[in-house]
Design brief:
heterodimer; A: 320 residues; alpha/beta; Rossmann fold; 2 domains; seven-stranded mixed β-sheet; 14 helices; 18% strand; globular; B: 279 residues; five-stranded parallel β-sheet; two-stranded antiparallel sheet; 10 helices; binds thiamine diphosphate; binds magnesium ion
Chain lengths: 320, 279
């Protein structure tokens, strides 16, 4: 299985954008080697600002740069970006809709050994709740590159959640075209829809292959645009498959699962099962061990799908 | 009508008196808002907007302009009164302050109000934004300066000191902070709530050029603004010693008048005092 780094994709794309547009500026908070903004710093030292270990100040500085017409990309780990500096993002960036791009690495539990203090499992919720904020979670390195290019052209605040580990490549074809507000169907199936974000998109695809062998056909959706979310695609899935499972490397509260439920409840109520982390913090461990521990492997998804299929209205009716 | 680069101190004093009246009138009409911290910085902002800063109320995005950030955003009535007098919007709009549908929000909102550059209201964030604008000006080789007004209680916020380090590290000599040192915050004297002294030594230690003045004396304010502009390689801060509630005897030096608007009776007395001078 081919894997690629989202962080590398980000760093590389920043450098390309930096060449194309002199208004692109980059900020980091002493993690530029890790977030890969160092690649931009090397190429354009005068347009790179290391703000030191001061995330709140970094967000405010980015807001000022945006107010003066620059396109600032501000990067650090997801928990420090969204947690430490949340109110700065709210007041200085989102409130006025300033054109700041917050691109974080180290989303989710696959941060691994560093443990719960460093594993952002609430970042998507923290950003999704802010008016004016767009929230994107790329599913692989190719999508990350497209996302970065897209948001550089879009005017307004954006949060992008990246990861520490390399992700399996999903979009190997050159045809894929990311759009803000659009999810993409990666596999069609009539029995159930799996809606996932980030690394879980790949796990959902693996689960769908296994289930297919047993005659269960899953539609698999990559919902990389968490906000604005693709309402039409969610409604279409609810109508066509009448059953949805969401999968996220994030708390099931206020993340992808919640966002999907909001649409389903209002527009087309069908059962939704949310898979993710349940009201607890992360712990140290290797990423793959942690994924098993938190029941986020393809096999876990397979088992959950089989369980929830019992709840499918049509099946219930057939049984009854 | 809007005269820039006013050098005549008597003229500036006259403008300051009119600004104070506007502040009291608009706060009274709104029925809520921040009186004390608006009145303490009247001379500081009058000097900036009428004597010092390059700005054009008819061309909000003029690249050559200087920038102003009200980091102590609760003094919005003062900024609105100044902006109206400069002609950024009509004077009568002042009396829509804090009302539903008004462009004059309780705290500065750059989406709505012409002449406001960034949103503030949550204390401690303005200096970071000033630094960001200053960095952008430098990248674009523009000569504009960035002025930012801080409260003395406000500097208890840690982000101010993060930003102080950033400005010094990046040698942002186009940043000029002005500290409205009125010695009061909401719960009482800053010294008693949580002491911030020695202020000048702190800023110096953080790599700043520091100048201390009487913040109600136009001559000192203008001299300081001109002087710090010549200092290269480091940011400057003007620590302006002021009186909270300045100009109205019964508001002066009273923590209570931090966040309450004048009643009708208070307004009448206050306007009289402004006209005749405190006895
Ligand atoms: C982050 C934050 N915390 C608390 C407040 C509430 N608040 C508004 S004004 C103020 C006191 C400010 O004191 P100072 O900076 O000295 O301002 P001034 O005396 O000039 O009014 C406080 C605590 C706020 N606006 N922002
Ligand atoms: Mg004060």
């Amino acid at each position: 299985m081919k894997k690629a780094s989202l962080r590398e994709a980000y760093g590389r794309t920043l450098v390309e954008l930096g060449k194309e547009n002199k208004d692109i500026v980059v900020l980091d908070a002493d993690l530029s080697g890790s977030t890969k903004t160092k690649m931009f710093a090397k190429e354009f030292p005068e347009r790179f600002f290391n703000i030191g270990i001061a995330e709140q100040d970094m967000m405010g500085t980015a807001a000022g740069l945006a107010a003066a017409g620059k396109i600032p990309f501000a990067s650090t780990f997801a928990i420090f970006a969204t947690g430490r500096a949340w109110e700065q993002i709210r007041q200085s960036i989102a409130y006025a809709g300033l054109n700041v791009k917050i691109v974080a690495s180290h989303g989710g539990i696959t941060v691994g050994d560093d443990g719960g203090s460093h594993q952002a499992i609430e970042d998507v919720g923290l950003m999704r709740i802010l008016p004016n904020m767009t929230v994107i979670v790329p599913a692989d390195a190719i999508e990350m590159e497209q996302v970065i290019r897209t948001i550089a052209k879009y005017k307004g605040p954006v949060y992008v959640r990246g990861a520490r580990i390399d992700f399996p490549v999903i979009y190997d074809d050159k045809d894929y075209h990311f759009q803000i507000g659009k999810g993409s169907i990666l596999r069609e199936g009539r029995d159930i829809t799996l809606i996932a974000m980030g690394l879980m998109v790949h796990h959902a695809l693996e689960a769908a292959s296994i289930l297919s062998l047993e005659g269960i056909e899953c539609r698999v959706v990559n919902m990389s645009s968490i906000k604005p979310i693709d309402r039409d695609l969610i409604i279409d899935s609810a109508q066509k498959t009448e059953l949805i499972v969401t999968i996220e490397e994030h708390l099931i509260t206020n993340g992808l699962g919640s966002a999907v439920c909001e649409v389903v409840c209002e527009e087309c109520p069908v059962p939704v099962k949310r898979l993710g982390i349940k009201d607890r913090f992360g712990i140290s461990g290797k990423p793959d061990k942690l994924l098993s521990y938190f029941h986020l492997t393809p096999q876990d998804i397979v088992e959950e799908v089989k369980k929830v299929l019992q709840r499918k209205p049509r099946l219930v009716r057939a049984v009854g | 009508m809007f005269e820039q680069g006013v050098k005549d101190i008597q003229k500036l004093k006259k403008i300051a008196k009119e600004i104070r009246k506007d502040i009291l009138l608009m706060l009274n009409k709104a029925g809520s808002g921040h009186t004390g911290g608006s009145l303490s910085a009247v001379e500081l902002l009058t000097a900036l907007f009428f004597a010092k800063m390059k700005h054009d109320p008819k061309n909000l995005t003029w690249k050559g302009r200087d920038h102003f950030i009200l980091s102590k955003g609760h003094a919005a009535p003062l900024l609105y009164a100044i902006l109206a007098k400069c002609g950024y919007f009509k004077h009568e709009e002042l009396f829509e302050l804090r009302q539903l549908g008004s462009r004059l929000q309780g705290h500065p909102d750059c989406k709505l109000t012409p002449g406001i550059e960034v949103p503030t209201g949550s204390l401690g964030q303005g200096l970071s934004m000033a630094n960001g604008i200053a960095m952008a000006l430098r990248l674009d080789e523009l000569s504009g300066r960035v002025y930012v007004l801080l409260g003395d209680g406000e500097v208890q916020e840690g982000q101010v000191w993060e930003a102080a380090m950033t400005a010094a590290h990046y040698k942002l000599d186009n940043v000029c902070a002005i500290l409205d040192n009125n010695r009061l915050q909401i719960d009482g004297w800053v010294e008693e709530v949580k002491n911030i002294e020695p202020l000048a030594a702190k800023w110096e230690a953080f790599g700043w050029n520091v100048k201390e003045i009487n913040g109600h004396d136009f001559r000192q304010i203008l001299e300081a603004l001109n002087e710090v502009e010549l200092v290269k390689g480091k940011p400057s801060i003007i620590i302006a010693h002021t009186v909270k509630g300045k100009g109205v005897s019964f508001f002066e030096n009273k923590a209570k008048y931090h966040g309450v608007a004048p009643t009708n009776d208070e307004l009448e007395l206050a306007l009289k005092e402004l006209e005749e001078g405190i006895k």
